[in-house]
Amino acid sequence: MSSHASSTGPQPTRRDLISLVALSGAAIGTAAIIWPLIDSMNPSADVLAAGAPIDIDMSKIAAGQQIVVLWRGAPMLIVNRTPAALKTLQTPSLVSNLSDPNSTVRQQPQYAENWHRSVKPEYAVLVGICTHLGCLPGYQPNPNPTTPAPNWPGGYFCPCHGSKYDLAGRVYKGVPAPYNLPVPPYRFVDDKTLRIGENPTGTAFELSTVVQM
Predict the structure, then answer these.
(1) Total domains in the fold of the chain
(2) What is the pTM (predicted TM-score) of this model?
């Protein structure tokens, strides 16, 4: 490609740069536990463009691990939460610091309106877009007394403006992000297969109906 062609091509926007920085920071900090956009688990480009449901082999996700796949052009966060993480989600000290612990705002389908915000407690399925300005929150699952915030119990941290979410995608009080991370429509086809983009039988939900992405 010539230098002229490079200089006249589309230029990155400030949002693009912020998103790239956020993604890079998250990948560096959690390289041992996150699989970023694994090609082998994503369908073809034409299927993605059509917004068709996608299937994920859950047997490949170890306890405590997160994978990220694309659906309708957005990152979907899928986490195999440990028993310790599930216990933390129910502790009064954590719940009291959350803005919407009971998922009263429509950021998820009815079948995810529970304390773990999922169909199965051990598996979180979230849209990985911060509800503040659309940055990419980083997966920080391990408790830490100082990092990325004081008394960190594990969850998601957005490096752009410091918004915090727990491992169910519930947003903390007093941060820029106003709402919990969205939950997409999904169901389990069988014990090993998660299908994003399709609701359980007898239910109806579209991601476009959430209050905010």
Answers:
(1) 1
(2) 0.79
